[in-house]
Amino acid sequence: MPRFAILLALLFAVPALNAAPSYQLKVLADNLNYPWALEFLPDGDMLLTERSGTLKRLAADGSERFSIQPALPDLLQAAQAGLQDVILTPGFTGNSQILLSYACGTLKANNTCLASAELTTSGLNNIKRIFQAQPLKSGAAHFGGRIAFLPDNSLVLTLGDGFDYREQAQNPANHLGKIVRLNADGSIPPDNPFADRPGYVAEIYSLGHRNVQGIFYDAVTQTLYSHEHGPRGGDELNIIQAGENYGWPVATKGIDYTGARVSPYTAFSGMQAPVWGWTPSIAPAGMTLYRGELFPQWQGNIFVAALAAKSVYRLQIEKQQIVHEQVLFSELKQRIRDVRSGPDGALYLLTDSDKGQLIKVTPAN
Amino acid sequence: MISVRWFLLWYLLLAVLLTTVLACITQSGFNLAAIAALTGGVAAGDIAATVWFDLTHFSLTYAPIALVNLLIVAVLLHYLPLLRRYWLAAVLGAVVLYLMLLLINTIAPMPTLIAATRSGGGLISMLLCSSAGMLGYTWLLKRRKYYA
User: Fold this and answer.
1) Can you give the pLDDT at residue A13?
2) A142 catalytic, yes or no?
3) Which of A116, A163, A236, A254 is deepest in the core (most CB within 10 A)?
4) Alpha-carbon distance A218 to A322, whole Å?
């Protein structure tokens, strides 16, 4: 009898241990026009970008402090093109400097740009373009556009292959399909992996990417993670190392949207394999690492916002290997553009539509 | 009593089949050439596997395009006897496909839907596949003496 009781207790206890924490969702802001990125300010406010070119400053409760259209040089708004990421520089508390990534140029000649600006109580001052990816190309697709700072205060900016120019992701003489590393003023760090190599553009940090729209640096494990959109299948989570080639379009598990094979190879010598992947595609957008305290079970987990899958993927990682995946927030039935771990321990979501929402996730109790 | 000329449909479907097979091989060829330029070559087995993959997957996307493409030209030939010449049928097949690709690329979210048509050489090759289909269709009808 005691054995039976212990068995019963275990049967109920095991699922309880594995169960996802219960949470509640609160809409902080709505009627957002394709919100793209969220960044937290030291005073508890948030900066929010919309692809249409709007930068909003919101209070912690979601109320709007200002909404402006910053005068970004040559901002291009069309299809996937527009205002993208926003990030505070490491020296923000002293100089109020932020960085914005965006598509710039015309429909026939464009690429990804990075601008610096000074944040004021009512908007931005001293907007300066500090980087423009080269070459300028046609079409409004695959701009990358996510930014992360590394411990040495240099930054990495993700770029796309421009869709029609996928083979250029393997060409070290340009920025298409690369992750670039810059200083906060746009200058090139002299210790970049190809800084002095002939035939390579000096900004390249890694190459062989398709459209990288999620990146963060985990200071605890000293690891830089990124994910990128595959075509039909072949979405990837990668650990980025300086100077490495991540394979696109030579090594991919995806195929063209038409069903045509992009490449005969799913892996190739000298090219880095992803640590995780999604086929069929989930269309990974933003990504964050949870280091908050409100959800102890989520500590150290990676959260990936998914557009096509209309959910958020929680990844448990051990020794740089994904050991468990859980799909969250699919009840929203919304394309999720970005997911961020807030300084208050809550998780924040941005839904992708012309009536987009900023949603705060906290424990149910 | 209405007489249905079923052979017109069968000939059109044969032409669509020919165009689709040629287009799949063309698509494979241009993609493989691009990969080979990056890797230094592609093994014969990988080439064969890629062509077979495209014949069984890309064809599902391309066959409806080819059907609409050739159907439009077939209707034009049906109602405009002056167009029933080999060279005109071939040119019309290419022109109608070109216009369709312009429309598709305008509507589709990506700049260029069919990868092979990203380059001038690839685009011309795909247009020639439609021309070949229309040449086959016209030849079948002339052989049956339906077209003079």
Assistant:
1) 40
2) yes
3) A236
4) 15
